[in-house]
Amino acid sequence: MKGKFISIEGIEGAGKSTQMSVISEYLDTHQIPHIITREPGGTPLAEEIREILLKPRQSGMHIDTELLLMFAARAEHLNTKILPALNAGQWVISDRFIDATFAYQGGGRGVTEQRIQMLADWTLQGLMPDLTLLFDLPVATGQQRVHQRAAALDRFEQEKIEFFEKIRHCYLQRAKQAPDRLHVIDASASLISVGTAVRAALDKLRLT
Ligand code: TMP
To answer: How far is the CA of 8 from the centre of ligand 1 (A)?
Structure first.
């Protein structure tokens, strides 16, 4: 039987990493074989592309280059890691997937939805996540969390508030258009209630 595919989305500072651990723990508890991965990245080659995409020194990157590199990393990730795992019956949990491209390159950078959809039709081979958890919170709250971290900011994190407002808006629009797949979770709530909401969404998926 094919495994289930879950993607995790949200703007910077939404607490995705913490919730990835909650998800992994949940799947371990229910003895569901799974892999945890991320985009851009997830394979050695795609991780190299990630480095190019996130390095602040590439600040002048053309938007088409950014878009195509995202899809190049995704093609590698999908064909060599995601699809083989799903076909082997494992669940795949990816920290970001296609919705991030619509939100960041579409909403944030202004690439048309049609252009992104064209690349998605080509590379995804019809695969979409069974469930997408969108961790939503006000941009200012997310930014505060990001700036509290000691690490240096990457090329996306260095963007202005307006960029993230557009991304948040786009994510929420997508959630409205596909409410059965995209599940919005209030990421500004306490860690305990965010964790409870995550487990409830996973219960629903596991039992269907
Ligand atoms: P993250 O690991 O903190 O989520 O960083 C990945 C960055 O890449 C994040 O700023 C969002 C961005 N991104 C895109 O712009 N488009 C995409 O398709 C994906 C997967 C990520």
So the answer is: 11
54-109 pLDDT tens trace: 998 777 899 999 999 999 999 999 999 999 999 999 999 999 999 999 999 999 99
pLDDT per residue as tens digits for the range 163-196: 999 999 999 999 999 999 999 999 999 999 999 9
Ligand 1 centroid–CA 190 distance in Å is: 24
47 lines ligand 1 (CB under 6 A): no
Q: Does ligand 1 come within 6 angstroms of the Cβ of 159?
A: no
Q: Read off the pTM.
A: 0.97
Confirm or reject: Cβ of 14 under 6 Å from ligand 1: no
| Nearest CA among 57, 54, 86, 74 for reference residue 156 | 54
* Atom 9 in ligand 1: residue holding the nearest Cα: 156
User: If you search the block for the tokens 């969108």, which residue do you land on?
Assistant: 134
Torsion of CA 135, 137, 142, 144, to 10 degrees: -150
Torsion of CA 64, 112, 102, 74, to 10 degrees: -40
Residue with tokens 């998800």: 23
